Amino acid sequence: MTKPSPTARERIVAGAADMISRRGLNATSIRETAKHARAPLGSTYHYFPEGKQQLATEAVRYTGEWVARGLRNELEAGPVPGLRAFLGLWRKIVIDSDFRAGCPVLAVSIEEPATDETPTALAAAADVFTTWEGLLADPLREHGAEPEQAAQLATLIVAAVEGTVTMCRAKRSTQPLDHTAEQLQSLTLATIKG
After folding, report:
1. Which of 20, 27, 159, 190 lies at a C-alpha separation of 20 to 30 Å from 153?
2. Could you give the CA distance from residue 71 to residue 65 in angstroms, rounded to a whole number?
3. pTM for the whole thing?
4. Distance CA 129, CA 142 (A)
5. d(Cα 122, Cα 118) in Å, to the nearest integer?
6. Contact predicate 102/165, CB 8 Å
């Protein structure tokens, strides 16, 4: 069975996620996203009539669900395999992009919004982080961690990995990820043994 080809809309969203992960939100334009996705500029405005903020929101949600899907599968084997998969996913991204790509969810989160209102992309990023934290916390609780301790460790994992990916890009090395992986695994094992 062959996987169906992505639609133009899906290619645009994936392309936006990729560009935001490399350049940040402010440096990613609709025109460049359409070109990157090999989609007509007009179709970009057709699918995203509210413009860049709508496209960025969809790119964040796309990334969030893509990561969550992989996490759900790996976490079925327990918190440590899930942690390794989460770290492995980001390792692959930074290595495959030659240390040029990070996380579009983080990129959207750290840029100053143009207005005092909370942009939809920023709200979507908050939802994605909450989802990832919940996915990581559930198996910790199932393996004996106290609920609050599981929630705190899940937050630490997401925050540490997001920061570490940024350090990997800056240092052009996976050493920060290696160090973080070792410590997060030790904390996870201590939490589920306790």
Report:
1. 20
2. 10
3. 0.92
4. 20
5. 7
6. yes
107 touches 170 (CB < 8 A): no
Residue with tokens 């936006």: 16
Tell me, what's the pLDDT at 4? 66
Give per-residue pLDDT as tens, 74-119: 999 999 999 999 999 999 999 999 999 999 999 999 987 777 667 8
Cβ distance 47 to 12 under 8 Å? yes
Is residue 107 within 8 Å of 63, Cβ to Cβ? Answer: no
The DSSP letter of residue 38 is T
Residue 5 — φ and ψ, nearest 5°?
-65, 145
Decide if 174 contacts 91 (C-beta within 8 A).
yes
Helix/strand/coil for 167: helix
From CA 79, how far away is CA 168, in angstroms rounded? Answer: 24
